Structure formats: C-alpha cells, structure tokens
Amino acid sequence: MSINYYEKRVSDEKIIELFYEPLPRLGKIADKIRRKRCGDLVTFVVDRNINYTNICISKCNFCAFYAKREGEGYVLSIDEILKKVAEAVMFGATQILMQGGLNPELGIEWFEKVFSEIKSKFPSVHIHSLSPPEILFLSKIEDMNVEEVLIRLKNAGLDSLPGGGAEILSDNVRMKISNKGKAEEWLEVMRIAHKLGIPTSATMMFGHIEEEKDIVEHLIKIRELQNETKGFTAFIPWTFKEGKSELRERASSVDYLKVLAISRIVLDNFRNLQVSWLTQGFEIAKVGLYFGANDFGGTLLEENVIKATGRDFTPAKVEEIVKAIRSVNRRAARRDTYYRIIEIY
To answer: Please, are residues 269 and 290 in contact by the beta-carbon 8 Å criterion?
Structure first.
C-alpha cells in the first residue's frame, strides 16, 4: 500500500492489514501524517500522579499495585494529598493526575472534599483525575447515575478524566483480565463526560493476551466515539508490564512501534499521540517520535503502579525531556492539559 492510500480514512476491514506492513513503511506513513497534522513541535507536561489508595475490590489479574494482604492497604489523607500537590507545584507542575483502587470506603463526598481543597489552595492546578472505572464505581456505591456523579465532581473542581481502565476495549479480552466492567461502560462514561464539557484522554494497554483483531476493535471504538463527541484530547498506547502480576508481557519494542504507527494512521480524528517513556524507556520513546507521536507525556514526579511491578522508576526532569526531543532534531515545548503551549525551548 502506498503512502497516498492513507490520505483517506482506512476502512475497518483494511486496518488488520496494517499489522503485516513492513515496520519502516508504517513508520514512514505515520511520520508523514504526524508532520501534516502536528508539525515538528513535540510537547510534554509537568505533572504528578497521586495514587490516593491501593485498596481495590477489582483485583485485576494484570495489576501488581492493589493491596493483596490485610495491612498492606492505604488511603492518603487529604493533608497528605495537599502536601504532594504543593511539592508538585513547587516543581512547576500544572497537572495533577489522581487515580487509585476501587475502594468502597471512599464515597463521592470524599472526592468532592479533596478536589475542592486542591482548588482552594492551588486554583491554577488542573485536576486530571479518576478513570471511567472509578466513576462507574462511585455511581454504583452512591446509587447515582454517571452524569450526576460527573456533575458533582466537576462542580467540586474536576477538570478532565484520564483514559485509564480502558485496557483493551474488546469484551472478549477485557472480561478475562479485568473486573472493571464492559467496554461499552467505559465508552459511555467518556461519552457523558464529553457531553458535560469534560475533556478526556484515551488509552490502550496491549501486549498480554489480546490478538491483533482486539487492538483493531479498540481503535475503531475510540475513533467512532471521537467522531461523535470530539472530546478526546490525546491517545496513549502503552505495553503491559508483568512484574508481580499474573499475566505475561508479550510486546517487544518493535511491537510497540508498530502499534504506535498504526494508531496514528487509524485515528485520523486525533491530533495528539503520546509516547510512553514510562514503559518503553527514553530511547524507544525517542524513536516513537518518528512513528507518529507528537507528545512525550509527562514528567511524572511520582508513579506507583508501574513501580509496583518491581521496575525501577525515576521521574523525568524537564531538561532531560527537552534534551531527548532535541536529540532527534525536533523542537520541545511545555504544554498544559489542553495541549496549549506554555513555553517553547
């Protein structure tokens, strides 16, 4: 297939054929699309990921983070959370990502209190928090519909939703690795959030038990919802890391680059595609900038989920990200959650 072929939308039936294209050709196509859609500027955000609890009734078999034994669980106090936000702001963070387990002891009033306290003390901080499974869980334990939950959280200070909990949006896979509801439930939370003016990101975790057709199903569903709502700000695919979990990782760096390029080709209604330096390391993340990506993600001043697998984790410094981007002859820019440019380096 020629590069010109991808100047029109790839049909659902043709997407699977992309997996059998040579990797250099996929990269060339994706890179051309990226240049046309985004230019050469590579963005990143200064952020912190606060995992407010590791107590989770879902106990997904791919997860190494949740508390497996009594006494291992924790819930951060509001003061502890505010201290972490203050530290992040001191380092220039504009975005706070709060995610945790499905903890039945934490109702919606707790989250309203946390968000309102953050906004009261740090009004300029963007609260990018709570994945669709967390929203669904709150709606169940509070006996409220999703829209009511989102309206209350938005009024308390929630600005946007991360795309966590998507895993693979194919129930054939999803119900084997996760206890976080069906694919359509994840999509419906995002649909309602977009309707309420709450932007979200979209993600995909691959490299475990899924097949190529499941990745295709995921991409089609994300593309269809973006057609409907235009509420996704970015797409972030990353690879599963096994560590202390029950599944085994199967995706190589080549697989990652292939899926990254295919994502850029298929998701023609997404502007921003993010590399995952957290799961791939800086070197492959830099290569990913030639496979369709235009964003380097966040500095992640704190991260506990991947760290729980036993992998080493060190936050990325702004100067390290800028150096990495410049090393592949691209310009670097710090952005906010809405992908508005704050500073060009």
So the answer is: no
CA angle centred on 333, ends 329 and 336, rounded to 5°: 150
Class of domain 21-344: alpha beta
Alpha-carbon torsion, ordered 48, 52, 57, 59, to 10 deg: 40
pLDDT tens profile 60-109: 555 555 545 566 788 899 999 999 999 999 999 999 999 887 888 999 99
Among 241, 278, 252, CA closest to 63:
241
DSSP strands (E only) in the chain? 41-45, 47-51, 95-99, 126-127, 200-206, 232-239, 272-273, 295-298, 331-335, 341-344
Rg (C-alpha) for the chain, rounded Å, is 19
Angle (CA) 310 312 318, round 5°: 145
C-alpha to C-alpha distance for 276 and 201, rounded to whole angstroms: 14
DSSP state string for 47-67 = EEEEE-B---S---TT-S-S-
Residues 118, 110: Cα–Cα separation, whole Å:
12
Q: Look up tokens 């609890």; give the residue.
A: 53
Q: In whole angstroms, give the CA distance from residue 244 to residue 64.
A: 5
- Please give the Cα distance from 91 to 242 (Å, whole number): 31
Tokens of 118: 């953050």
For the chain, the domains span 21-344
Give residue 231's identity as a one-letter amino acid code: G
Closest C-alpha to 297, from 309, 314, 282: 282
Q: List the Cα angle 38/202/302 in 5-degree steps.
A: 95
Residue 170 DSSP class: -
Chain segment 305-333, per-residue pLDDT in tens: 444 444 565 789 999 999 999 999 999 99
Give this prediction's pTM. Answer: 0.91
